Amino acid sequence: QAGQRFRAHRPAPASANESPRPAASLSVMGCASSSSVKGPETQRRRLSVGHVEGKVDEVGAEATEENRGLISALNEQSIIELIEAAGEDNGRKMSIGSNTDQGKTSFANKSMQQMGDEIDPVSCGLGYTCRKGLKPESPNQDSWFVLKMDTFSIYAVFDGHGAKGHDVSNFVKDNLPKLIIRDQRFKTAEMPAMLIEVFKRTQGLVSTADRLKKLSAQMSGTTATVCIHDHAQKKLTLAHVADSTAVIGRSKGENGEPQGIALTRDHKPNLKDE
């Protein structure tokens, strides 16, 4: 545990008699301006940026410039190209995820993009759907991402909120998985600590993008739930902020009755420790 708001550990391999435990939950990222925050009890935990009046100090300016360079670097390569450049995995690899669209038809499927090797998702047990809700004034604000490799996979969802929540969730969907792949602690026992730092770094990128007017994140933001799947060890390492719940499905009893078990605890303002 780092401070009062960070919790991280790796769950033991799941078996039929064990209940999985949450791996890493992160709740430092709020959504409010400095003039409206009344205390931690009233904040929703989302990836967004709070406005602080006054000039950016030298440290802030330096961080902004560093993040600007990182955003540019991340935009230069797709995640498949990053993996190949790093020599991370010589086997098959596929990424698939949502694309922001402006469709406003309720329950319409969100557009998506697939890169890398041609892999049938169904053949490797992957299923997905992302449909717009009922709000007539906004497009589908949810974003999602799957990276499938022979040894590891990453699954992630991001639920945008606010007028520009779809832009924030798409920005985080594009950049957070790349930060994971670039980190030397990926595929090691240090992944829980890595994920905490990656979430913090992503928050910094959101803040910088907002300052540069590439995003509007003052009153908009996103949840984030990420799961890294180690196929060889059959382990899941999770990190989340806010209330996009990760659930594992199991067969229970002799009849194989399906059972859903939450792997994360939603960060809600009515919880005392929030």
Please tell me about this protein's structure.
The protein is of the alpha+beta class. Helices cover 24% and strands 23% of the residues. The protein is built from 4 helices and 11 strands; from the N terminus they run ββααββββααβββββ. The strands form 2 sheets. Strands 1, 2, 3, 4, 5, 6, 7, 8 and 9 form a 9-stranded mixed β-sheet that branches. β8 and β9 form a beta hairpin. The two termini are 15 Å apart. The N terminus is likely disordered.
Give helix % range. Answer: 10-25%
Q: Could you tell me how far the N terminus lies from the C terminus, measured between alpha carbons in angstroms?
A: 15 Å
DSSP summary: helix tally: 4
Outline: globular
Class inferred from helices and paired strands: alpha+beta
Mean pLDDT, to the nearest integer, reads 81
Q: What is the count of β-strands?
A: 11
Proportion of residues in extended strands: 15-25%
Q: What string gives the helices and strands in order?
A: EEHHEEEEHHEEEEE
What characterizes the major β-sheet?
9 strands, mixed
Segments where pLDDT lies below 50 for 5+ residues?
A: 1-43
- As a whole number of angstroms, the C-alpha radius of gyration is 19 Å
Describe this structure in a few short sentences.
Helices cover 24% and strands 23% of the residues. It is an alpha+beta fold. The radius of gyration is 19 Å and the shape is globular.
